[in-house]
Amino acid sequence: MSDGTALTGETIPGTVLSIDAMGGDRGPSVVVDGMANASAKNPDLRFIVHGDRPELERQIDRKRGLLAKCEIRHADSVVRMDEKPSHVLRHGKSTSMWSTIEAVRSGEAQVAISCGNTGALMLMSMTRLRKIEGVNRPAIACLWPSRNPSGFNVMLDVGADIRADAEDLLQYALMGASYARNGMDLARPRVGLLNVGTEEHKGRAEIKVAADLIGRVAPAADFDFVGFVEGVDLPSDKVDVIVTDGFTGNVALKTGEGTAKMISERMREAFKHTPLSRIAALLAYTSLRRLSKSIDPRRVNGGVFLGLNGTVVKSHGASDATGVAAAIKLSARLSASDFTKRLAARIAQAEHAAAAAMQTDADKGAAE
Amino acid sequence: MSDGTALTGETIPGTVLSIDAMGGDRGPSVVVDGMANASAKNPDLRFIVHGDRPELERQIDRKRGLLAKCEIRHADSVVRMDEKPSHVLRHGKSTSMWSTIEAVRSGEAQVAISCGNTGALMLMSMTRLRKIEGVNRPAIACLWPSRNPSGFNVMLDVGADIRADAEDLLQYALMGASYARNGMDLARPRVGLLNVGTEEHKGRAEIKVAADLIGRVAPAADFDFVGFVEGVDLPSDKVDVIVTDGFTGNVALKTGEGTAKMISERMREAFKHTPLSRIAALLAYTSLRRLSKSIDPRRVNGGVFLGLNGTVVKSHGASDATGVAAAIKLSARLSASDFTKRLAARIAQAEHAAAAAMQTDADKGAAE
Predict the structure, then answer these.
(1) Fewer beta carbons under 10 A from the terminal one: N or C of chain A?
(2) Residues 6+ away with beta carbon under 8 Å from A95
(3) Contact A247 B204 (CB under 8 A)
C-alpha cells in the first residue's frame, strides 16, 4: 500500500478481487492483459494483485487507467506447477498464491483467482479458508458447453479430490445446485449423477447409494434429480448439474477439451485443403468465428472451489488474456450473488434431510 | 442349414463371422445393410446370421448375392437393452446373442459380432468362451480418433468391468499392446496410463502401483511405457494404447462422443446461418465431408473384447449400416491376424515378468 497504487478499500463500491499474477504457464503479462480486458468491460472492479512488484508495476503501468484500480502486493516466490501440494503448504508462505488467499481470508477481497498449481491452490485454500460446516470434501465445479439455454452445464468435482463416497456425492449435488441457482439463475436446477449407463442396476456401489440419497434429499433442497447420466449427456439439455468424483470428472473435462481441440485443428486443415475451401473459409468467416467461440474452452475458463469459507476461482494454467478475463468475469458474478453464504445455508439445511435419509437406511439395514 | 442358405463351411476360403442380427436399437435391417456393404468390399466373407428366420430371410434376400454367403440360424428371442446381464445368462439360451457366441465357441466362426446389450454380451462371452489363462478381468478395447499416422489410438477398458486393480491394469496394458501390434501393425506400441495429471505423485493408489508394474514389464513385453497420460492426450500422437479402468474409460469414450456430436451440430448450424455461409458450405463440401468422416464415431465402431478364448466385437447399439460394416471390417482384420492366439501367448509370457516384479515389491515391502 506504499506506492500510490493503494486501494481505498471498503469505501469503493463494487467488487474487490485478489489475483495471483504469477502461477500460470504464460507468466504475469497475460494475467495483466486479462485484468485490463475485464476492467474495460466492468470499470467498477478493483484488484489486489500479488507477485513480483517491479515486474507487475511495469506491466500494469502499460495499461491505461489500470494502475489506479490495483493494489500490488509483493511476493518473493511462486508456486511451481510441479511442486507437491503438501510441500507448498509447509514452505509456501512467501508465495503469491498464499498472499492471494490471505486477502480473501482477511475479508479485503471477496474472491481469489489463480492460474497456478491446482492441487496446491486447493490445499492452501482448504487450510487457510477452511471448509464450510457440514462439508467433508470441497469440490471444483466447471462450466461445460451445453445445449441448455444458458449455453452451459455445471460439472463437479473436476479434480479437488480423486475420491468421493456416497455422502460426498450428495454434498456435491447440493453445492452444484446452489451454484447453478446463484451463478446461473436457475430456480430449480436438474441434477444428474454421472455413471456408465442410465439403468438403475449399473455402476459402482457408492454411486447407487448416492443416487438413493440425492433422490430423497432433492425435494427439500429445491432441485430435481434426473438420475444417472452418461458421458454423452454432458453437453445435453437433459441436466444442469452433473455430479461425479474428482478423478472421473477431471478425465471427462480433459477428454472433452482434447476432443474439441482436435476437431478444431482438423476443421482448420479442412479449410486450407483446396483453393475452393479457402474461399469458403472467407465466405463463412463470421459463422466460423461464432462456432469457434461457442466451443472455445477459454470462454468457460474458471473452476470454482465450492465448500469453503470464501470463493476461489482456478483459471486454467495455460490461460491467455481471454481466459483470465473470463475467470475474472465469473468471479465478479459470484461475488455479486454472495453465493458462498447462500451455499453454506443450503448445506446446513440439507444436512438434516440427508441425515434423516441415512438414518432410515441404517434402520432398514438393521431390520434386514 | 435347411433352406438353401447353408454355408459349405470349412471348404470356403476366408473368414466366417457370426452375427447377432437382432440386439441393436434399429433392428435387423441395418445389420443386413451393413453385411451387404461389407460383403461388397470383401467378397470372401461368409456369415452365420442369428435371429428371426422369416424376417432375416426376407431382409437378406433383398440384397443381391448376399443370401448365398449366409447361413441363417433361427433364435426365438432377443436380449433386450435393459435386461440385467445375470438374468440374461440364466434365461438367455434361446436368444440370438447366445447362438451367436456358440458359433464361435464351436469353432464354426472366428469372430462374433453383436449390437446388443453390452453387459449381457460380456457376461455371456466370459461364461461361454472363458477367459484366457492368466487373465483376471477381460476388457473392451475401442479405437479413438487420434493424430497418429494410423488415425487411431486404442483405449481399454471402456466398460467390461467398472473395477480394475493394479494387476488388472497391467493385463490391460499387455492386451492393448498386443491388439495394437496385431490389429494396427505397430511393432512397438507406446502404452500410457490414464490419470488426472502426468506428475508421478498424482492419482489413485492402484494407478501408482500399476505404473510401476507396467514400467517394469514393458521391456520384456516389447512395448514402451510412456507413463501417465491425461484426458487431453487421448487423441494425441504421444501414445498408441491408453490403459484405464472400465468406469473411467466408458465415461471418457462417451464424453468424447458427446463432444464431437455437439460440435458437428453447431458446425451444421453455423453453415446454415447466413446466405454467404450457405454458399461457403457448398464450396467446402468435399473438405467438410472429409472432416466429418475423420471425426465420425461410426467409422471407429466396434469395441473388441480382449482376454477371451475367441474374438467378440461389440458394435454400438445405435449403429447404422455404416457402423455395422465398420465392425465387420474390424472383425475380418482381427480374424486374419489370428490375434487371440498371439495375445494368449503374450499374456503367458508376460505373466512371469509381472510375477517377478510383484515379488520384488513384496520383498521390498517386507524389508521396509
Answers:
(1) C
(2) A22, A75, A76, A77, A78, A79, A88
(3) yes
Interchain pair A270, B257: CB under 8 A: no
Tally of structural domains, chain B: 2
Interface contacts A/B by beta carbons within 8 Å: 190
Q: Which residues of A touch B123 (CB under 8 A)?
A: none
Which residues is B131 bridged to in the sheet? B308
Residues in a beta bridge with A113 = A19, A313
Query: Are A224 and A218 within 8 A, CB to CB?
Result: yes
For the stretch B194-213, pLDDT in tens is 999 877 767 788 999 999 99
Min Cα separation A54/chain B (Å): 32
Chain A residue numbers with beta carbons less than 8 Å from the beta carbon of B237 are none
Q: Provide the residue range defining the domain that includes A81.
A: 1-130+308-337
Q: Tell whether A156 and A297 lie within a shared domain.
A: yes
Same structural domain, A157 and A246: yes
Q: Which residues of A116-148 are buried (b: 16+ CB within 10 A; e: fewer)?
A: bbbbbbbbbbbebbebbebbebbbbbbbbbbeb
> Are A99 and A167 within one domain?
no
Which of A254, A269, A281 lies nearest to residue B232, judging by beta carbons? A254
Output the nine-digit C-alpha cell for A283. Answer: 465466405
